[in-house]
């Protein structure tokens, strides 16, 4: 679809809203309306305090026009840009919606953190029911997704209440996996190709952990949670896991720690020895990620394990005595059906893990049109699977504790972490709601300094690939020291 901007240059906002509603189109900017074909003109007029955005959309020879107006806050440039972006997007949403059979479940929301948005409404003085009404009416979000958001927002608020203001979390990234899953969009190296990189990587990450501990001590912060993720951390040997976890213990004051997670991830990497090393290293929460309990679907996604292997891995973890076990699933995998996904959720519920996370498959960036169409066509079955999971999990005593959306998910849906009471992962909430600073170590790890008063977030990103990462030790430490204002 051709789009034309008049009176503004917020191209990204326009493209984002068009693709949110029409995910299979290809967008292209032009100076004027074409004589043939579909287009969207986005026009902005500002008169003193008032701003008006108008969208004129032509699809299949029919033209619709919609406008939204607002009063500019004029407090600073960023605040003005925020409200202008909002009315530009909403005007396009209103106009394109007239061509669709039904509104998307998440209405006009394109952002990834709906619960953070809902909390923002409550921070501005609205009660929870008032915030829910505004959330639903202003953004056109469905009743189910509004309820989900408000429940996740309440959990986020409890996490804010228990985290001290000067607390930080530590993320440890292990970018290796036994083989690559078909849908993977992470920078993770399969060990067939990169086994030799693991020992020097472990040495580099230990050095980075030690230096990061010094930053935390120098800035008088307290460590509240640790999360080792990947990749698949259990690709490492028990000795390598022990080396990293011992280094964490000796580099940080662990006396304020409230949670320590290791993402064991793939069941084909889990052994009793590794789980013992993880427990002795201090972790109390592990994640075992089947994604599906359907063996055919596991084959389709390139996993080299069966649903039975998941159960065996779960039993090892349970026997060793972790207090919280999470299990990840993905909706929308190749060959999965609502019935088979229902079976996956029921099987996991029967195992009684404390947490079950339901992700929606995200298509890779740069996916071709065929993939985009296949993804968009899955809308109904994905909705059915998510709704079934929500009902089964709620009935089994789980509640949604964190929620985020990703770009390019099947049908534009969400990822939800479900938990039994009092077992929510504080790290996941803090990360998704951006309520705490985080120091991250490892290739591609992103450290974030969150200013809770202004909401400003500053980031430092480590080099993406292990080799490049291992060559950049001192530069990474300098970058983090700068981020945390140590000169
Ligand atoms: S386990 Fe995760 S990180 Fe590893 S290949 Fe599969 S999707 Fe990618």
Explain what you see:
With 487 residues, this protein is an alpha/beta fold. The protein has 4 domains: 1-101, Maf protein (Alpha-Beta Complex), CATH 3.90.950.10; 105-150; 163-323 and 426-487, no CATH class; 333-422, Translation Initiation Factor IF3. The chain is built from 17 helices and 18 strands. It has helices at 11-21, 77-97, 114-123, 128-139, 143-162, 191-194, 198-218, 238-251, 272-280, 295-300, 307-320, 338-351, 369-377, 379-395, 426-433, 466-470, 473-483; strands spanning 2-6, 28-29, 39-47, 50-59, 62-71, 167-174, 176-177, 189-190, 222-230, 259-265, 285-288, 324-331, 355-360, 399-405, 414-419, 437-441, 446-450, 457-461. The strands form 4 sheets. Strands 14-15-13-12-11-10-9-6-16 form a 9-stranded mixed β-sheet, with helices on both faces. The protein has a 5-stranded mixed β-sheet with strand order 2-1-3-4-5. Strand 1 (2-6), helix 1 (11-21) and strand 2 (28-29) form a beta-alpha-beta unit. Helix 4 crosses helix 5 and helix 7 runs parallel beside helix 17. Iron/sulfur cluster (SF4) binds at residues 177, 180-181, 184, 186, 188, 230-232, 265-266. Residues 177, 180-181, 184, 186, 188, 230-232, 265-266 line the site of iron/sulfur cluster (SF4).
Shape: globular
Secondary structure class reads alpha/beta
Bound ions, cofactors and other small molecules, one mention each: iron/sulfur cluster
Overall mean pLDDT? 91
Q: Over the alpha carbons, how many angstroms does the gyration radius reach?
A: 24 Å
| Share of residues in strands | 15-25%
Q: Count the strands?
A: 18
Low-confidence parts, pLDDT < 50 over ≥5 residues? none
Number of domains: 4
Number of helices: 17
Give the end-to-end Cα distance, rounded to a whole number of Å: 50 Å
Major β-sheet annotation: 9 strands, mixed
Provide the spatial order of strands within the biggest beta sheet. 14-15-13-12-11-10-9-6-16
* Helical residues, percent: 40-55%
């Amino acid at each position: 679809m051709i789009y034309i901007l008049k009176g503004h240059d917020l191209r990204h906002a326009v493209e984002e809203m068009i693709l949110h509603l029409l995910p299979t189109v290809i967008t292209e900017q032009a100076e004027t309306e074409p004589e043939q074909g579909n287009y969207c003109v986005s026009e902005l007029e500002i008169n003193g305090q008032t701003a008006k955005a108008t969208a004129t959309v032509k699809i299949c020879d029919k033209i619709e026009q919609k406008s939204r107006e607002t009063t500019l806050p004029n407090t600073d440039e960023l605040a003005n840009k925020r409200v202008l972006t909002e009315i530009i997007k909403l005007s396009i949403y209103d106009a394109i919606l007239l061509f669709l059979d039904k509104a998307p479940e998440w209405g006009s929301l394109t952002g990834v953190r709906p619960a953070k948005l809902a909390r923002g409404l409550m921070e501005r003085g609205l009660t929870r029911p008032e915030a829910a009404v505004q959330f639903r009416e202003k953004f056109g979000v469905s009743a189910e997704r509004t309820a989900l958001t408000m429940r996740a927002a309440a959990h986020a608020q409890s996490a804010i209440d228990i985290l001290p203001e000067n607390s930080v979390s530590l993320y440890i990234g292990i970018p290796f996996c036994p083989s690559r899953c078909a849908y993977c969009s992470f920078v993770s190296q399969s060990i067939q190709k990169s086994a030799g990189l693991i020992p020097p990587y472990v040495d580099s990450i230990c050095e980075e952990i030690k230096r990061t501990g010094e930053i935390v001590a120098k800035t008088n912060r307290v460590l509240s949670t640790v999360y080792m993720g990947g990749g698949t951390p259990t690709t490492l040997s028990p000795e390598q896991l022990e080396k990293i976890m011992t280094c964490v213990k000796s580099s940080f004051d662990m006396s304020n720690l409230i949670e320590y997670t290791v993402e064991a991830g793939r069941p084909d990497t889990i052994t009793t020895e590794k789980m013992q090393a993880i427990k002795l290293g201090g972790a109390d929460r592990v994640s075992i990620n089947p994604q599906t309990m359907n063996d055919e679907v596991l084959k389709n996604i390139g996993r080299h394990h069966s649903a039975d292997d998941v159960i065996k891995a779960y039993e090892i973890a349970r026997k060793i005595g972790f207090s919280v076990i999470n299990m990840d699933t993905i909706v929308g995998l190749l060959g999965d059906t609502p019935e088979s996904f229902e079976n996956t959720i029921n099987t996991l519920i029967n195992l009684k893990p404390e947490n079950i996370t339901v992700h929606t498959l995200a298509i890779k960036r740069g996916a071709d049109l065929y993939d985009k169409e296949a993804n968009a066509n899955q809308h109904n079955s994905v909705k059915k699977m998510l709704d079934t999971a929500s009902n089964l999990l709620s009935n089994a005593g789980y509640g949604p504790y964190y929620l985020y959306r990703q770009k390019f998910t099947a049908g534009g849906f969400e990822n939800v972490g479900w938990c039994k009471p009092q077992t929510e992962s504080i790290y996941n909430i803090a990360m998704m709601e951006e309520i705490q600073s985080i120091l991250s170590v490892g290739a591609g790890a992103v450290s974030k300094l969150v200013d809770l008063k202004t909401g400003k977030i500053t980031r430092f990103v480590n080099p993406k690939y292990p080799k490049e990462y291992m060559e950049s030790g001192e530069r990474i430490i300098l970058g983090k020291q700068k981020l945390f204002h140590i000169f």
